[in-house]
Amino acid sequence: MTENTHTLPNGNVRRLERSRSDRMVAGVAGGLARYFDIHPAVYRVGFVVLTLLGGAGIIIYLALALVIPDEGKEDSVATAALRNRRERPWPLIGLALVAIAGSVLLSHATLWPHGDAWIPLLIAGAAILWITRHGTKASATSDATALAAEDSRRIRRVFKGIAIAFGTLIALFLVTAAVIAAIFHVHLGNGIGDRNYVVADAQDLRTSYKLGIGDMKVDLRNVQFPAGETSVKTRVDVGNLRVIVPNNVALRVDGDAQAGQVDMLGKTADGRNVDRHVAETGKRVLVLKAHVGVGKVQVTRAVR
After folding, report:
1. Which secondary structure element, helix H or strand E, spans residue 166, and what is its range?
2. pTM over cut 0.70
3. Per-residue pLDDT reduced to its tens digit, 127-150
4. Are the C-beta atoms of residues 108 and 149 closer than 8 Å to each other?
5. Does 68 share its domain with 82?
6. Domain that holds residue 45
7. Beta strand pairing call for 284-301 and 250-264
8. Taking a C-beta distance cutoff of 8 angstroms, is the pair 225, 247 a contact?
9. How far apart, in whole angstroms, are the C-alpha atoms of residue 200 and residue 21?
10. 250 and 158 in one domain?
11. pLDDT tens track for 50-101
12. Are 275 and 243 in the same domain?
């Protein structure tokens, strides 16, 4: 493999290395500046401009960080990963993920929603390279087998930590969900998701409409209610409830929300344990009960 060297006028050889004394991220700009005898700000501005013009600056910087050795080291990250690919596979896997991420970004591939496949690949690859890094002294005094064993131990510890963190989050989520379900009387048996009921006539009208979690709309505008009182109960435990009533029926409505908002024919109130009522008289009366545990209740008349 060709050394990254440059011969000075006095005959000394200058080696291209990432700077340890002049670095903001990985020392690439500082190393290039020292090698070519140009101020590092020139390279830093160039990387920023290329990044703003499409993201290429990030890829070029990462590529240089991988192929240029750190100051005082013989091998770069890429060279070490390739040299010890059999004894230490983890750094090579990380390097491959970073390379794939760069390829996806440069080709504008759409393997991920909105074409962002490079983000998780880049994070995973960079994380593996970071986890399996070793200092100069450790690399010099340890053989590849010992380093490979240490790589595996580090990876296992990271995965164990991730698993514990993930399990903790799941447990917290389940506990929170159980508390909410107990406080607001959430009944998952009533269903999860969105529901849209458009009732054509009185024969299709149910006495109750219920939903556990989600948004529910009950459209009664086409119903010709018979004389007397007709009772309908509507309930959403967590979510939004909207009921549309016809113009030619009197209303006796009881709308409430344990936590949220109640919009009753344009009059709104919100907070905890909100109640709003409507009491009208007529030959045909719709007695409506509209309840939400957490969310919003909205009762509106159909537009003429």
Report:
1. helix 144-184
2. no
3. 766 766 665 555 555 566 676 667
4. no
5. no
6. 1-72
7. parallel
8. no
9. 77
10. no
11. 767 666 677 777 777 777 777 767 666 666 666 655 555 566 566 666 666 6
12. yes
Q: What's the pLDDT score for residue 262?
A: 92
SS3 call for 222: coil
CA distance 234 to 250: 18
Q: Are 156 and 193 part of one and the same domain?
A: no
Q: Is 39 left (phi over 0), alpha (psi -120 to 50) or beta?
A: beta
Same domain assignment for residues 128 and 161: yes
Nearest to 118 by CA among 129, 108, 133, 130: 108
Examine the domain organization and report whether 172 and 193 are in the same domain: no
- Residue 170, pLDDT above cutoff 80: no
Among 72, 102, 121, residue at a domain's last position = 72
- Quote the CA–CA distance of 285 and 226 in Å, as a whole number: 9
Q: Are residues 207 and 279 in the same domain?
A: yes
Domain end position, chosen among 72, 105, 129: 72
Backbone angles phi, psi at 241, to 5 degrees: -125, 125
| Amino acid residing at 197 | Y
Together in a domain, 167 and 266: no
Total domain count, the chain: 3
Question: Measuring CA to CA, which residue among 283, 260, 256 is closest to residue 271?
Answer: 260
Distance CA 255, CA 212 (A): 17
Asked if 246 and 276 count as a contact pair (C-beta separation under 8 A), the reply is: no
182-210 per-residue burial string, b: 16 or more CB within 10 A, e: under 16: eebebeeebbeeebeeebeeeeebeeebb
Helix (H, G, I), strand (E, B) or coil at 245: strand
Residue 137, pLDDT score: 55
Quick one: how far is CA 239 from the chain centroid?
22
Q: How many CB atoms lie within 10 A of CB 212?
A: 20
Between CA 158 and CA 120 the distance in angstroms is 16
